[in-house]
Structures are given as C-alpha cells and as structure tokens.
Amino acid sequence: MTFKxxxxxxxxxxxxxxxxxxxxxxxxxxxxxxxxxxxxxxxKTVLIDTVWQPFxxxxxxxxxxxxxLNKIDYxxxxxxxxxxxxxxxxxxxxxxNTPIYCTKNGAKFLKxxxxxxxxxxxxxxxxxxxxxENKLVFLEARMLHWPDSMFTYLxxxxxxxxxxxxxxxxxxxxxxxxxVDNAELYQESIKYYANILTPFNPLVVKKIDEILxxxxxxxxxxxxxxxxxxxxxxxxxxKYLEWAKNYKENQVTIIYDTMWNATRTMAEAISxxxxxxxxxxxxxxxxxxxxxxxxxxTEVFKSKMVLVGSSTINKGVLSSTAAILExxxxxxxxxxxxxxxxxxxxxxxxxxxxxxxxxxAGFETINDGIREMWNPDDDAIVRCKDFGKSVGEIIGYxxx
Length: 400
Ligand code: FEO
Description:
Number of helices: 12
Bound molecules: MU-OXO-diiron
Structural class: alpha/beta
Strand order of the largest sheet: 1-2-7-8-9-10-11
Helix content: 25-40%
Largest sheet: 7 strands, mixed
Number of domains: 2
Distance between the termini: 46 Å
Number of strands: 24
CATH superfamily of the largest domain: Ribonuclease Z/Hydroxyacylglutathione hydrolase-like
CATH architecture of the largest domain: 4-Layer Sandwich
Radius of gyration: 24 Å
C-alpha cells in the first residue's frame, strides 16, 4: 500500500498491525505500529527513511511499483535505529551509489549497524538540499531520542518529517489525526512520550522553541510512527511542551507486588485513606507483576505522587518491584513525590530499599514509608489508612 499525502509526497511505509513488543520487550505496542517512509517527487526524487528489516523485501518490492528505483536521487536517513533503517541493505543492493543524507552520528551509527561504506553525506542544522522547485532543510535533533536524530523540512509542501518525535505506536489505515479516535491517539502519544522522551525533557523544550521561532509554514507533521498530524499539526508540539515541563495531573499512582495479599491489602487501605481526605484526586492502583510496565510508567508520568509497595523476600524486594523501579529510575522523572510500603515476616528490608530507590530515581520521599508484619490486622489497617490520609493531605496542598 502506498498513498499520496500531498502534491509531491507519497507515504510508502508499512503498517505493522501485529507487533506487540518493541525494543526487545522494553516497550509494549498494544495497538501495533507503522514504519513511515515518504517519497518526495520534485525535479529530484527523495526517499525519507525506510522500514524495519523484516519488511525490507516487501518495502523495496512495493517501492518498485511506485517508482523506478534508479530514479531516486537521494535518501534521507533521519535516524539510524533499525526500525527506520532496516530496509537500507535491501534497497542499497539495488541502488548502491545513491547518496544517504544524515547527521555525522547517523553515518557513524549506520556504518556500525550495517558495516557498509555507503555514500554518506553528513548534514548539519540549516543545511539544505535543492530539489528543483522546493528544497529540504535539515534540523539536527540530537537526543530526540538518539544522538543521531534529525528532522527534515520540505518547503513548498510545508511538511516537517520529524522521525520518532511526535510519533505513536499506533497502527491505523486512517493515517491522519483528524480521522482516528483522538482518545486512542493521545493515549499512544503520551505513552510514547512518557516511556521514550521523558529523560530528554529540556531538549524537547529547546528544540520545539527553536522550530517555533523559525515561523515555518506548516501543513503537516509527518512522524516515522503512527498517524500524520495535519489538522492543527502544532497541537502535538504544544502538548510536547506541556509534557516536557515535568508534567503532572492531580493523580497518585500506587504500584505494588504481593505474595499472599498482605501488601495488596495495605495498598487498598492506603488508597481508602487518601480518598477519605482528598475526594478530587485520581488514584490508580497497579500490581506490577501482572500489569504492563509501560502503561504503569505512563501513569507515573501523570502523577504527583507515586507509592511503591512490596513484600520483603530474601532481604530484598519482589522482582517486579525491582524491575519497575529500575525503569522509573532510568527515565529521570522530576518534581514528583513518593513513598514506600510493604508487609514482611521477619527481616523486613523492602520498605527501606524502595525508599532508597525512589530517592535515587529523583523522587522527594515524604517519609520513611510504612511496613506491617504478616497479614495486616484491624490496627494495621488503621495505620495504613492514616498513612493514606497523610498522603492525601500532602497531595492536596501540592501545587501543580
Ligand atoms: Fe522509531 Fe528510535 O526508532
């Protein structure tokens, strides 16, 4: 499938309806994804990005139906990651001398991936490539989300090809933001931002400010995953600016794992305590052993406060607790509060360990947490509720 998205541009990518895991098993793709590749036909012809390697043959075969490959004058590799560069080996077998425009790091990384000395042309921010009537303008986007990332802007058609930025893992044949279910679209967009872009918040703000200050006419933002933003395309840039500024909703997320339901009982009692003093706050509770980790991270992203609980096992925490804390730590959230809880039988290290991990992850811990021995009795439930009440009060006076 290919289709025209503007006078001079056709989408020539691949919708992957089936994929459910990305980056190994690090990112869940509940709604599939797409690898968006674009063919620009001016006096010169340009291919922008390709698709993931398993679809390489299919991609090249479809592209041949769209154009004689020898008529492609330039290839633009906005990003070297294999989901966008994976079809290059298949393509370059057919047109080995075609120049590949990319950043300096892009050339380095593509060589490291494929061990080929293709004809790389390194570009920097502000460099242009004349296509005849229109031209391409390159904008480095270092660390959004890799050191090699860049955006490419097409004048005349006024399209920003933003690669991963503004993308979503969202398979849809409807293609455009004005056609798809916007609740689904924004859910996938915020999940993508929370799980991939959070560590780069300051760079996101800087890059978007830079783009806005250029006052480029903009008809479309075409990312390399998911749908194209054509109806008010800057709405996603505005959202990114909001998300990049240590985003918080009036929400507390409680994440726990439990062996025989004692820590779960604590989680629910704490939640009841929060609700008793703070009716407006949204409380979401997840058992980290049986919920999707990226969905949990998305809820953490939206939270003012995160409470993490685990039973003590082997002087440590349960494995799903350790895993989610590791993910949270890596993302470098800022401006969030946290606290720990958990049940134990004898040694009882989990609460202290979780508190330490939350601190390392940049959370402001509101206290030393709460731990209860064995299965909570009525008194323990009251203590957990009181703990929840103190959380609810703190949330109540936390300024957004
Ligand atoms: Fe979609 Fe960073 O690759």
